[in-house]
Target: tRNA wybutosine-synthesizing protein 4
Amino acid sequence: VGSYSAVSLSQQVQGTGGSSAVSKCSAAARGYIQDRFLRLLAGRRRRRAPLIHRGYYIRARAVDHCVHDFLLKTQSLPRTQILSLGAGFDSLYFRLKDIGLLHHTVVYEVDFPNVACQKAALIKGTKELSTLVGDTGGEGLGAITFSAVDYKLLGVDLSELSELERTLEEAGLNKEIPTLFIAEVVLTYMENTRSDALIQWAAEHFPQACFLVYEQVHPEDPFGHVMQQHFSQLNTALHSLAQYPDCEAQQRRFLGKGWTECSVMDMNEFFSCCIPEDEQQRVQTLEPFDEYEEWHLKCSHYFVLAASKGMEPSWTPLLPSVTAPRHAGPVGMAGSVPAAVCARLSGIPGLRRYGHHSVLIKPNMILTTGGFGEEDGQHCRMRNFHVLSKHAGYWEAVCVTQNIPDKRWGERLYHTVSCLSDTLALVVGGRTSPSSAGLGMLWLKFPKTCNAGPDDVGVELVSLQPAAEAAALRWRHSTTEMTFKGEQYLFVYGGRSALEPVLGDWFFLHTPELSYTVIAVEGPVPESRHSHSACSWEGGVLIAGGLGAAEQPLGSVFLLRQLEHGLQWQTIETHPPLVPRYSHTAHVHEGKLLLVGGVWFHASSVPGVTVIDLVTGLCLNYVIDVEHLEWPLMLHNHSSVFLPNEKELLVIGGGGNCFSFGTHLNPEPVSLSLSSILISH
Model:
């Protein structure tokens, strides 16, 4: 790299450090992390979104967990040291010093020379920081921009290994004592040959050493594509990903470069296994939150790694302290399902959205309402209704803007729409923001005659009996048509509300007048859930998956079935067991339950189509072949409609806000051909 481009590249990388300091500072201000020094070091103050707060919380928690474990295991030794690589404006030294954990430990921080100079000036000019560091023993010299008894700040480019070694020696680093190396989203910005050399150098030159890494993983799935694209646009490409795409590859990397022990976890596993349950609950209730999919996807794309050599006793900070489900190896796939874009729907506005609902309102006519998406080039909650109709084998779009005051519709997300006749549908629940109450029920009335698609959709508020009002004040629930003693009902189940993060109750609403009916239900009550799927089957209701009370995906399938005198919950056993998931869609066809997409914790693949035989319980997973799509297909927060005659599944919308990497909306509907997998069963 020429000197000019090397300088500009280092500036881009430094920009990521500044941005992460601002995000950590915002997370601390909201109570996610306890750190009074961040505001002194971060400079800019800016409030970030709850999803960003959670992301930086888990990052800080993972690093602190391992650092504290190192200090605890070595507390009886006379001297230890911590070497933080690419430390930026991190506050680690000040936090450790403040709580009295550095009695016999020296902290060395290394970053680009101008970053180290800025930080040194900041410390000297901030009384609270300079007092804590104590007497500096004079100005720093050369690359050593700040030098105190237990804190040294060095300005060196990490990719210049010989210069790094020389400066560390000059600053007093002792290779013979236990040393913890920290690289928090640092190595991936270096060329692989240079980061590999650094990892190997540390193992070869330090007989007792530990190495802590936190960075990105899984570049190849849809979220990974969006993540990579984001860093490429910032001109800070993630170099590690091509050679070390998953946790196992990172583990092999360290074991192959002189480290004798190495454990690694993605952040979903770390959150479940290494954070006590009361702390999990504290974080989950700090602010209104409804971006579970993006949170879990973010966590499956970052890992924490702890490697060591020569440590007695051995250093193993990543042992689960909570008995949480380990996310076992890869999910077996029985075959693939081809995906194709619909010929006449590319570039149609109004279908780039998520958190919406699509429903067949008459044969070959699909109404899509609500959600968050793109309208007139802007991201917003969607106001317009959208109709797709099929003519001569092709889907065509007819946009419908409803002729009602906006406030009645309420621009809702995560609602349901149930079609009761070809002129009438019922909207249940949904939300605007996650801190506001649910939005109640609406009738949608369509004209009887419309060939091109309904130009006017009438909207009327539904007034419910007081006992049934709670049925409507929820979102991420399900509403399913069912039959009991020859009468038609809507079964409203689960979801969440502004007050309850997860609901397990249900309501029977007799149609069409929606009178609230009590029907006795026996059997094991399913655990509370939202973002599950629900389908009508043989007069009853099939509930599958969902997100449970501890924000953990569920793998259970239940059937609410009719008995002589009432109803009964029955568990449907699947084998192999259904991989827990949520935010999927579902359909039933000839005794098979089809689950489409969703989010699960098995980071090695993304959910495709799962087929469960409801008679035998056989459960088969199929990967979606996206070879013919030119963009990442994100299959969560989508809607889908199944056309049994063609054995075609139309997927509409989907995507979400991909952490700080930008919003991804699937650009056009996708058709999945299921004929091969539905015949082969």
User: Anything to note?
Assistant: Residues 3-29 form the longest helix (27 residues). Residues 60-309 form a domain with the Rossmann fold fold (CATH 3.40.50.150).
